[in-house]
């Protein structure tokens, strides 16, 4: 049976290069929105008429499947709603998602080096809105596509430290070697809902988990605590109407950071995805109400919903 291989990732994440490799590996037809824009409008930089572009992409996917071919679908695919629409349209075909979780800094440098540029503010918007794919959307399988980049941490050392239940200064004395965590030290969130610095808040969430968590996934919960707000410095935006800073999308940026660091440290994909899901949905459980809880249940299942309720307690305690 034919299979669709959907790629997901921000511009500059290496999707196009990976798509070519994927086509060779699976003897697949390549359907790419950039090529469709080039054909329809004379330039792949033309970002308007998105509906028409995806309508054509779906038609090309259908044509390839009808011919008995595998398909590689190369687009950013950062939004869950659009991915689900695709999966519902092709519900009788197995669809695997290949997630290019390349660090923002690397993606930005790649874009600066290529002919077709994208403004930083546009790339930042992609990063803040990248809803990390989950199996519950309807995928047959998820693949984490890794771009190696030193994270200045050691897996064994990190696990020993977490097992020892260190105090704040000991924990961040180690973590500060990584720029993702160095940025948290002394970071004033300048928000009325947070009285602690970012490192103090992160530690308080970890402290609550160490004291009260009784499940079987302690290490994953500890790591989720470390990463859940790692994207805040990237997402900080002043809101004049509110009179304080907002961090919209930080859960999505944080999930990407967690994925990259844990992959670099050598954790397996199932382990990583559990941590990433906790990070990615921690705002949904806090502010989504009953509808948010229902979405989480249908996407992740009852056990992770319960874990997220506990994580929300820890997050609230840490404020």
Automatic annotation (TrEMBL):
HD domain boundaries: 199-288
Source superkingdom: Bacteria
Pfam families: AAA_33, HD
UniProt cross-references to InterPro entries, sorted A to Z: Cell-binding_unc_protein, HD_domain, P-loop_NTPase
Coiled-coil regions listed: none
Protein name (record): AAA family ATPase
């Amino acid at each position: 049976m034919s299979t669709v291989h959907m790629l997901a990732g921000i511009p500059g994440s290496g999707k196009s290069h990976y798509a070519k490799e994927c086509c060779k590996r699976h003897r697949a037809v390549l359907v790419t929105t950039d090529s469709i824009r080039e054909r329809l409008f004379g330039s792949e930089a033309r970002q308007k008429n998105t509906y028409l572009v995806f309508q054509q992409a779906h038609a090309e996917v259908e044509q390839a499947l009808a011919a008995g071919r595998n398909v590689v679908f190369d687009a950013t695919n950062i939004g869950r709603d659009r991915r689900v629409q695709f999966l519902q349209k092709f519900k009788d075909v197995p669809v695997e998602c290949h997630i290019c979780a390349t660090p923002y800094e690397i993606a930005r440098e790649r874009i600066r080096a290529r002919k077709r540029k994208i403004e930083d503010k546009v790339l930042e918007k992609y990063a803040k809105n990248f809803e990390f794919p989950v199996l519950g959307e309807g995928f047959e399988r998820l693949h984490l596509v890794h771009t190696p980049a030193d994270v200045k941490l050691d897996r064994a050392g990190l696990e020993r430290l977490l097992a020892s239940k260190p105090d704040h200064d000991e924990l961040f004395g180690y973590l500060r070697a990584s720029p993702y965590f160095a940025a948290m030290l002394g970071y004033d969130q300048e928000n009325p809902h947070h009285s602690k610095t970012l490192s103090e808040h992160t530690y308080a969430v970890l402290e609550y988990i160490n004291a009260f968590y009784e499940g079987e996934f302690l290490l994953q919960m500890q790591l989720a605590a470390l990463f859940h707000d790692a994207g805040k410095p990237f997402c900080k935006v002043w809101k004049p109407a509110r009179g304080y800073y907002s961090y919209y999308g930080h859960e999505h940026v944080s999930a990407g950071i967690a994925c990259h660091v844990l992959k670099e440290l050598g954790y397996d994909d199932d382990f990583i995805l559990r941590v990433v899901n906790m990070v990615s949905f921690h705002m949904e459980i806090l502010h989504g109400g009953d509808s948010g809880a229902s979405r989480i249940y249908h996407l992740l299942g009852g056990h992770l919903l319960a874990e997220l309720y506990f994580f929300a307690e820890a997050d609230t305690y840490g404020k």
